[in-house]
Amino acid sequence: MTIVFKVSENVREKMIAYYKDAKREKTPPYAVFQADEADTIITLYESGKAMFQGVSADIDANIWVDMEKKLNNRTIDINEPKKEKEKYKEELNYFYSMPTIGSDEVGTGDYFGPIVVTATFVDKTKIDFINDLGVKDSKKLTDDKILKIAPLLIKEIPYVTYTLNNKEYNTYQNKGYNMNKIKAILHNKVLYSLTHKEEKYPYSKIVVDQFVYPRKYFEHILEAKEKVTDITFTTKAESKCASVAAASVISRYIFLMKMDELTKELGIDIPKGANAIVDQVGKEIVTKYGFNKLNEIAKLNFKNTDKIKEALR
Questions:
Q1: 0.70 exceeded by the pTM?
Q2: Which helix (H) or strand (E) holds 265?
Q3: Where in the chain is the domain with CATH 3.30.310.10?
Q4: If you write DSSP's letter for every residue of 179-194 in order, what string do you get?
Q5: Burial of 215 (0-12, 13-18, 19+ CB in 10 A)
Q6: Lowest mean pLDDT: which of 108-117, 130-139, 150-159, 252-261?
Q7: Domain with CATH 3.30.420.10 in the chain
Protein backbone atom coordinates (compact mmCIF):
# COMPACT_ATOMS: atom_id res chain seq x y z
CA MET A 1 0.00 0.00 0.00
CA THR A 2 1.28 3.47 -0.89
CA ILE A 3 -0.26 6.70 0.36
CA VAL A 4 1.00 10.16 -0.62
CA PHE A 5 -0.19 13.60 0.42
CA LYS A 6 1.29 17.03 1.03
CA VAL A 7 1.71 18.15 4.62
CA SER A 8 1.55 21.68 6.02
CA GLU A 9 4.68 23.37 7.32
CA ASN A 10 3.76 22.97 11.01
CA VAL A 11 2.99 19.27 10.52
CA ARG A 12 6.20 18.83 8.53
CA GLU A 13 8.24 20.06 11.52
CA LYS A 14 6.45 17.65 13.84
CA MET A 15 7.12 14.76 11.43
CA ILE A 16 10.84 15.57 11.35
CA ALA A 17 10.97 15.51 15.16
CA TYR A 18 8.76 12.40 15.48
CA TYR A 19 10.86 10.23 13.13
CA LYS A 20 14.21 11.60 14.31
CA ASP A 21 15.34 8.29 15.84
CA ALA A 22 13.89 6.12 13.07
CA LYS A 23 15.68 7.76 10.14
CA ARG A 24 17.59 5.67 7.65
CA GLU A 25 21.22 6.54 7.01
CA LYS A 26 20.71 7.01 3.28
CA THR A 27 18.16 9.54 2.05
CA PRO A 28 16.55 9.35 -1.44
CA PRO A 29 17.10 12.30 -3.82
CA TYR A 30 15.08 15.41 -2.87
CA ALA A 31 13.98 13.86 0.44
CA VAL A 32 14.27 15.47 3.87
CA PHE A 33 14.37 12.01 5.44
CA GLN A 34 13.32 8.39 5.08
CA ALA A 35 12.37 6.41 8.17
CA ASP A 36 11.22 2.93 9.22
CA GLU A 37 8.22 2.60 11.52
CA ALA A 38 7.20 -1.05 12.11
CA ASP A 39 5.90 -2.24 8.69
CA THR A 40 5.90 1.22 7.08
CA ILE A 41 8.54 3.24 5.26
CA ILE A 42 7.96 6.98 5.58
CA THR A 43 9.58 9.44 3.19
CA LEU A 44 9.22 13.21 3.53
CA TYR A 45 10.25 15.14 0.41
CA GLU A 46 11.52 18.71 0.13
CA SER A 47 8.34 19.55 -1.78
CA GLY A 48 6.33 18.80 1.39
CA LYS A 49 4.91 15.51 0.09
CA ALA A 50 4.89 12.64 2.58
CA MET A 51 4.85 9.07 1.27
CA PHE A 52 3.84 6.06 3.38
CA GLN A 53 4.64 2.58 1.99
CA GLY A 54 3.89 -0.79 3.54
CA VAL A 55 1.26 -3.06 5.04
CA SER A 56 0.31 -0.53 7.72
CA ALA A 57 0.76 2.60 5.59
CA ASP A 58 -2.82 3.71 6.22
CA ILE A 59 -2.37 3.51 10.00
CA ASP A 60 0.79 5.62 9.99
CA ALA A 61 -0.63 8.06 7.45
CA ASN A 62 -3.72 8.59 9.56
CA ILE A 63 -1.57 9.92 12.43
CA TRP A 64 -0.70 12.90 10.25
CA VAL A 65 -4.11 13.15 8.63
CA ASP A 66 -5.51 13.61 12.15
CA MET A 67 -2.75 16.10 12.95
CA GLU A 68 -3.65 18.16 9.88
CA LYS A 69 -7.27 18.20 10.99
CA LYS A 70 -6.36 19.19 14.55
CA LEU A 71 -3.79 21.89 13.77
CA ASN A 72 -4.99 23.24 10.43
CA ASN A 73 -8.64 22.16 10.18
CA ARG A 74 -7.62 20.45 6.93
CA THR A 75 -9.31 17.29 5.68
CA ILE A 76 -7.22 14.82 3.68
CA ASP A 77 -8.86 11.85 1.95
CA ILE A 78 -6.29 9.06 1.79
CA ASN A 79 -8.67 7.07 -0.41
CA GLU A 80 -8.26 9.66 -3.15
CA PRO A 81 -5.68 7.52 -5.04
CA LYS A 82 -8.41 4.91 -5.61
CA LYS A 83 -10.62 7.56 -7.18
CA GLU A 84 -7.69 8.72 -9.31
CA LYS A 85 -7.13 5.15 -10.54
CA GLU A 86 -10.70 4.93 -11.77
CA LYS A 87 -10.37 8.28 -13.50
CA TYR A 88 -7.07 7.10 -15.02
CA LYS A 89 -8.70 3.95 -16.48
CA GLU A 90 -11.44 6.02 -18.10
CA GLU A 91 -8.96 8.45 -19.64
CA LEU A 92 -6.74 5.58 -20.79
CA ASN A 93 -9.42 4.37 -23.21
CA TYR A 94 -10.70 7.85 -23.99
CA PHE A 95 -7.51 9.40 -25.38
CA TYR A 96 -6.39 6.28 -27.26
CA SER A 97 -9.60 6.26 -29.27
CA MET A 98 -9.01 9.60 -31.02
CA PRO A 99 -6.47 11.44 -33.17
CA THR A 100 -4.38 13.74 -30.96
CA ILE A 101 -1.47 16.12 -30.84
CA GLY A 102 0.64 15.63 -27.75
CA SER A 103 3.94 16.88 -26.36
CA ASP A 104 6.49 15.60 -23.88
CA GLU A 105 10.00 16.52 -22.72
CA VAL A 106 13.17 14.87 -21.45
CA GLY A 107 16.39 16.13 -19.90
CA THR A 108 14.90 18.22 -17.10
CA GLY A 109 16.37 15.95 -14.41
CA ASP A 110 19.78 15.58 -16.06
CA TYR A 111 22.70 17.81 -15.05
CA PHE A 112 24.40 17.32 -18.41
CA GLY A 113 22.68 17.41 -21.78
CA PRO A 114 19.88 19.56 -23.18
CA ILE A 115 16.16 19.73 -22.54
CA VAL A 116 14.35 18.26 -25.55
CA VAL A 117 10.64 18.87 -26.13
CA THR A 118 8.68 17.24 -28.96
CA ALA A 119 5.10 17.51 -30.19
CA THR A 120 3.62 14.82 -32.46
CA PHE A 121 0.40 14.17 -34.31
CA VAL A 122 -0.91 10.60 -34.19
CA ASP A 123 -3.95 9.76 -36.30
CA LYS A 124 -6.20 6.77 -35.62
CA THR A 125 -4.57 4.92 -38.51
CA LYS A 126 -1.18 5.05 -36.71
CA ILE A 127 -2.27 3.96 -33.24
CA ASP A 128 -1.78 0.21 -33.94
CA PHE A 129 1.66 1.01 -35.37
CA ILE A 130 2.52 2.94 -32.18
CA ASN A 131 1.33 0.09 -29.96
CA ASP A 132 3.15 -2.59 -31.98
CA LEU A 133 6.42 -0.71 -31.41
CA GLY A 134 5.75 -0.73 -27.66
CA VAL A 135 5.63 3.05 -27.51
CA LYS A 136 2.61 3.02 -25.20
CA ASP A 137 4.86 2.03 -22.29
CA SER A 138 7.71 4.33 -23.27
CA LYS A 139 8.85 4.89 -19.67
CA LYS A 140 9.73 1.19 -19.52
CA LEU A 141 11.76 1.23 -22.73
CA THR A 142 15.53 0.88 -22.52
CA ASP A 143 17.78 3.34 -24.31
CA ASP A 144 18.70 0.59 -26.79
CA LYS A 145 15.03 0.07 -27.61
CA ILE A 146 14.53 3.84 -28.00
CA LEU A 147 17.43 3.97 -30.46
CA LYS A 148 15.78 1.22 -32.56
CA ILE A 149 12.19 2.41 -32.67
CA ALA A 150 12.51 6.22 -32.70
CA PRO A 151 13.78 6.38 -36.33
CA LEU A 152 10.72 4.35 -37.37
CA LEU A 153 8.44 6.80 -35.57
CA ILE A 154 10.18 9.79 -37.12
CA LYS A 155 9.53 8.38 -40.61
CA GLU A 156 5.85 7.66 -39.96
CA ILE A 157 4.40 10.52 -37.92
CA PRO A 158 4.50 14.33 -38.11
CA TYR A 159 6.48 15.97 -35.30
CA VAL A 160 8.26 19.14 -34.20
CA THR A 161 11.19 19.18 -31.77
CA TYR A 162 12.92 21.98 -29.88
CA THR A 163 16.27 21.42 -28.18
CA LEU A 164 17.28 23.87 -25.44
CA ASN A 165 21.02 23.70 -24.81
CA ASN A 166 22.33 24.37 -21.33
CA LYS A 167 23.84 27.74 -22.18
CA GLU A 168 20.31 28.88 -23.07
CA TYR A 169 18.92 27.11 -20.00
CA ASN A 170 21.34 28.96 -17.71
CA THR A 171 20.36 32.26 -19.34
CA TYR A 172 16.71 31.49 -18.55
CA GLN A 173 17.69 30.67 -14.97
CA ASN A 174 19.55 33.97 -14.65
CA LYS A 175 16.35 35.73 -15.66
CA GLY A 176 14.59 34.01 -12.74
CA TYR A 177 12.72 31.39 -14.78
CA ASN A 178 12.12 28.16 -12.85
CA MET A 179 12.02 24.74 -14.51
CA ASN A 180 8.23 24.69 -14.90
CA LYS A 181 8.22 28.06 -16.66
CA ILE A 182 10.96 26.89 -19.02
CA LYS A 183 9.05 23.68 -19.76
CA ALA A 184 5.83 25.60 -20.41
CA ILE A 185 7.58 27.95 -22.84
CA LEU A 186 9.10 25.02 -24.74
CA HIS A 187 5.86 23.01 -24.87
CA ASN A 188 4.07 26.07 -26.21
CA LYS A 189 6.76 26.52 -28.89
CA VAL A 190 6.47 23.00 -30.31
CA LEU A 191 2.68 22.85 -30.02
CA TYR A 192 2.27 26.15 -31.84
CA SER A 193 4.73 25.12 -34.53
CA LEU A 194 2.99 21.79 -35.18
CA THR A 195 -0.55 23.20 -35.14
CA HIS A 196 0.41 26.04 -37.50
CA LYS A 197 2.19 24.03 -40.16
CA GLU A 198 0.98 24.40 -43.73
CA GLU A 199 -0.50 20.91 -43.51
CA LYS A 200 -3.44 20.98 -41.11
CA TYR A 201 -3.70 17.89 -38.94
CA PRO A 202 -7.24 16.64 -38.06
CA TYR A 203 -6.70 16.26 -34.32
CA SER A 204 -9.51 16.03 -31.78
CA LYS A 205 -7.48 17.14 -28.76
CA ILE A 206 -4.11 18.56 -27.77
CA VAL A 207 -2.80 16.66 -24.75
CA VAL A 208 0.04 17.63 -22.40
CA ASP A 209 1.33 15.66 -19.43
CA GLN A 210 0.39 17.85 -16.46
CA PHE A 211 3.56 19.08 -14.74
CA VAL A 212 1.92 22.19 -13.26
CA TYR A 213 -1.65 23.40 -12.71
CA PRO A 214 -3.19 24.68 -16.00
CA ARG A 215 -3.66 28.18 -14.59
CA LYS A 216 0.04 28.37 -13.75
CA TYR A 217 1.00 26.95 -17.15
CA PHE A 218 -0.80 29.79 -18.90
CA GLU A 219 0.77 32.32 -16.54
CA HIS A 220 4.17 30.95 -17.56
CA ILE A 221 3.50 31.58 -21.27
CA LEU A 222 1.72 34.91 -20.77
CA GLU A 223 4.46 36.87 -22.54
CA ALA A 224 4.57 34.57 -25.59
CA LYS A 225 3.32 36.28 -28.75
CA GLU A 226 2.05 33.00 -30.19
CA LYS A 227 0.13 30.66 -27.89
CA VAL A 228 -1.76 27.38 -27.95
CA THR A 229 -4.52 27.42 -25.35
CA ASP A 230 -6.94 24.60 -26.25
CA ILE A 231 -4.99 22.04 -24.22
CA THR A 232 -6.14 19.05 -22.21
CA PHE A 233 -3.82 18.51 -19.24
CA THR A 234 -3.68 15.06 -17.64
CA THR A 235 -1.24 13.17 -15.45
CA LYS A 236 0.58 10.09 -16.82
CA ALA A 237 -0.33 11.32 -20.29
CA GLU A 238 2.18 9.17 -22.14
CA SER A 239 0.38 6.03 -20.91
CA LYS A 240 -3.00 7.40 -21.99
CA CYS A 241 -2.25 9.22 -25.22
CA ALA A 242 -0.40 7.83 -28.24
CA SER A 243 0.88 11.21 -29.40
CA VAL A 244 2.39 12.03 -25.99
CA ALA A 245 4.02 8.59 -25.84
CA ALA A 246 5.48 9.08 -29.32
CA ALA A 247 6.72 12.55 -28.36
CA SER A 248 8.42 11.05 -25.31
CA VAL A 249 10.28 8.47 -27.40
CA ILE A 250 11.43 10.98 -30.03
CA SER A 251 12.55 13.45 -27.36
CA ARG A 252 14.52 10.71 -25.61
CA TYR A 253 16.11 9.63 -28.87
CA ILE A 254 17.31 13.16 -29.67
CA PHE A 255 18.54 13.57 -26.09
CA LEU A 256 20.59 10.38 -26.38
CA MET A 257 22.07 11.58 -29.68
CA LYS A 258 23.08 14.88 -28.07
CA MET A 259 24.64 13.10 -25.10
CA ASP A 260 26.63 10.90 -27.49
CA GLU A 261 27.85 14.02 -29.34
CA LEU A 262 28.91 15.54 -26.01
CA THR A 263 30.82 12.39 -25.06
CA LYS A 264 32.71 12.45 -28.35
CA GLU A 265 33.40 16.19 -28.13
CA LEU A 266 34.86 16.02 -24.62
CA GLY A 267 36.48 12.62 -24.81
CA ILE A 268 34.77 11.75 -21.54
CA ASP A 269 31.82 9.39 -21.06
CA ILE A 270 28.99 11.76 -20.02
CA PRO A 271 26.49 10.14 -17.61
CA LYS A 272 22.78 10.83 -17.39
CA GLY A 273 20.98 11.92 -14.23
CA ALA A 274 22.26 14.04 -11.35
CA ASN A 275 23.97 11.54 -9.05
CA ALA A 276 27.40 11.12 -7.46
CA ILE A 277 28.86 9.74 -10.72
CA VAL A 278 27.78 12.97 -12.42
CA ASP A 279 29.66 14.94 -9.74
CA GLN A 280 32.84 12.94 -10.42
CA VAL A 281 32.59 13.52 -14.17
CA GLY A 282 31.87 17.20 -13.58
CA LYS A 283 35.08 17.48 -11.57
CA GLU A 284 36.98 15.77 -14.41
CA ILE A 285 35.51 18.18 -16.98
CA VAL A 286 36.41 21.26 -14.93
CA THR A 287 39.94 19.97 -14.39
CA LYS A 288 40.38 19.38 -18.12
CA TYR A 289 38.45 22.29 -19.65
CA GLY A 290 37.91 24.85 -16.89
CA PHE A 291 34.79 25.78 -14.94
CA ASN A 292 33.32 27.92 -17.73
CA LYS A 293 32.78 24.76 -19.77
CA LEU A 294 30.00 23.78 -17.37
CA ASN A 295 28.00 26.84 -18.43
CA GLU A 296 27.78 25.33 -21.92
CA ILE A 297 27.01 21.72 -21.01
CA ALA A 298 25.43 21.66 -17.52
CA LYS A 299 22.45 23.08 -15.64
CA LEU A 300 24.31 25.26 -13.17
CA ASN A 301 21.44 25.68 -10.69
CA PHE A 302 21.52 21.94 -9.86
CA LYS A 303 23.14 21.00 -6.54
CA ASN A 304 25.82 19.14 -8.49
CA THR A 305 27.55 22.45 -9.25
CA ASP A 306 28.19 23.14 -5.55
CA LYS A 307 29.39 19.57 -5.03
CA ILE A 308 31.83 19.89 -7.95
CA LYS A 309 33.15 23.19 -6.57
CA GLU A 310 33.55 21.62 -3.14
CA ALA A 311 35.46 18.66 -4.57
CA LEU A 312 37.89 20.98 -6.35
CA ARG A 313 38.79 23.03 -3.26
A1: yes
A2: helix 242-266
A3: 2-78
A4: HHHHHHHHHHHHHHHH
A5: exposed
A6: 130-139
A7: 98-262
